[in-house]
């Protein structure tokens, strides 16, 4: 009974050493991901980049994408306003689209 328990524990430790040892080796590899460059943001380049740098990058990326979406919404509302003809309801809808684009940025 005791011999089988010891052999199970030994096999478990050997398997853990085998699999965890390989993961420590792969931790030294360089990044295989290329992050898009964002104006004003530091792009993570190495594996030594700290977690706050990644969080800052993701925050700045989300601000950049949000600004692009708000700008696109504003432009879309402007185009709708231009092609509304003379319809007051279409102009009002286009103005609300433009104001929603600006408020979405805030």
UniProtKB/TrEMBL annotation:
Does the entry feature the keyword Transmembrane, yes or no?
A: yes
Please identify the protein, giving its name as recorded: DUF4134 domain-containing protein
Q: Could you list the residue ranges that cross the membrane?
A: 57-79
Q: Which UniProt keywords apply?
A: Membrane, Transmembrane, Transmembrane helix
Q: Which domain of life is it from?
A: Bacteria
